Amino acid sequence: MTKQEMREPTFLVLSALAGGPMHGYALLAETESLSQGRVKMKPGTLYAVLDRLKEEGLVVPAGEQIVDGRLRRYYEMTDEGAQRLGAEAARLEANARHALANLRARAAGMTA
Q1: What is the pLDDT of residue 2?
Q2: Based on the number of CB atoms within 10 Å of its own CB, is 73 exposed (0-12), middle (13-18) or buried (19 or more)?
Q3: Rounded-to-integer distance, Cα 26 and Cα 89, Å
Q4: Do 14 and 58 touch, CB atoms closer than 8 A?
Q5: What would you report as the CA-atom Rg of the chain, rounded to the nearest whole angstrom?
Q6: Could you read off the pLDDT of 50-99 as tens digits, one per residue?
Q7: What is the pTM for the complete model shown?
Q8: 62, 75 in Cβ contact below 8 A?
Q9: Is there a contact between 78 and 60 (Cβ–Cβ < 8 Å)?
Q10: Which residues in the chain belong to E strands, given as ranges?
């Protein structure tokens, strides 16, 4: 993956996988929960994200299991994926800190 910013669905999938291996349906539910309902990925979108992340070495398959007659494929984040997620989280956090500082300065200027 290049050094450009990460798209939100990618960030959410990696964030979900930071907690441990998950199967597709659980990833859909967790990404929706992490985004507080703002991001509702369809299965096709999720699997496109996972395929790209596999190609980039950020996630790997973590096994399969049959549950109620349906195949569940599990995925887990690689060490490289954890590094990329950490870097992106730090970038977002720094941007948020700057925005909040500017808002505080603006509010202080309005009351002066």
Answers
A1: 44
A2: middle
A3: 22
A4: yes
A5: 17
A6: 999 999 999 999 999 898 888 899 999 999 999 999 999 999 999 999 99
A7: 0.86
A8: yes
A9: yes
A10: 22-23, 59-67, 70-77
User: Which token pair is 31?
Assistant: 């990404």
CA dist., res. 35 & res. 12, Å (int) = 8
Residue 41 structure tokens: 């990925």
Q: What is the DSSP letter of 63?
A: E
Span 20-43, mean pLDDT? 95
The pLDDT mean for the chain works out to 92
Q: Report how far residue 83's alpha carbon sits from residue 89's, in angstroms, rounded to the nearest whole number.
A: 10
Helix (H, G, I), strand (E, B) or coil at 5: coil
Closest CA to 32 of 16, 56, 47, 55: 16
pLDDT at 3: 60
Q: From CA 45, how far away is CA 8, in angstroms rounded?
A: 12
Q: What is the end-to-end Cα distance of the chain in Å, rounded?
A: 47
